Structures are given as C-alpha cells and as structure tokens.
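1st attempt posting a full record on here, be nice pls
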Amino acid sequence: MYKITALPTDEVRGYQAGRPDAYGNPPERALSDGGGNPCRHCLRHIPEGAEMLILAHRPFSEPQPYAETGPIFLCADPCERHEGAEIPEVLTSSPDYLIKGYGATDRIVYGTGAVVASDRMGAAVGEIFARPEVAYIHVRSARNNCYQARIDRG
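the predicted structure (as tokens):
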C-alpha cells in the first residue's frame, strides 16, 4: 500500500503569500490555460482563467547532487491539499510519467527510474517499493521532467 503526498500546506501557503522560490525569486503570477497546469498541492488542474503561481521548486530538504529543482504550478488562491492513496487527477491526465525511487538519504536508487504508462502506475510503484532500500518515489512529467508528486509507503 502507498499514499500520494502533495506539497505541504504550510510550504504552499508561504508561496501563495510571496515567499521566494528555490532560486530566491518571488513566484510569478499567470492565468491558467486549463488542462496543462497541474497544482502540486490539490493535485488537480488549475481551471482555465484562474490565477496560478509559477515557481522553481526543489522537493528535497537540502541541496545535494540528486536534488533536482524545476518549475511547478500552484493555485494562487488557497486550495485543499490532496490526501490519501487515491490516484489524483494530475497523475491520470498524461499518457505516461517518469517515476524514480529514492533512499532514506534522498539519493536516487539506481535501477528504479522508468517511464510508465498512466494505467500501469500502481503496478510500477509496487515493483519499485519491492526494493527495501526505496524510501519514497517521485513522479515527474515524462515530457518535461517537472515534479508532480511524491509517493510514500502506506
């Protein structure tokens, strides 16, 4: 069993209040075009015409060689954090995703990275978690490498 982990609410509220991103810049504000702007907090697509934030995010607590940083979208207005194991909208809207397992030291566990079809995500997550050295999994866009969510053991 596993759970999908969205960005923490306190971190998101900081960005929504103008806290600098991973590169020290304030989040940019833009209007969503609809289906292509997934919020990393509610894990839904930001509705067309709604205000959103664009910022650089590093989903790791410390900078280190494996701590990738990249662009993400967030709802500009407060939204509810996705909770639980249910596969959210943003992880079913693309034909495939890049997933990678990480160890307790936040380093990639080699041999766990794969581009998987959306309908095979659950099976692929189970295969990666079969390796005891994997502490969690990151889901990224297979096309643009943007961070989508984290998957933790349930």
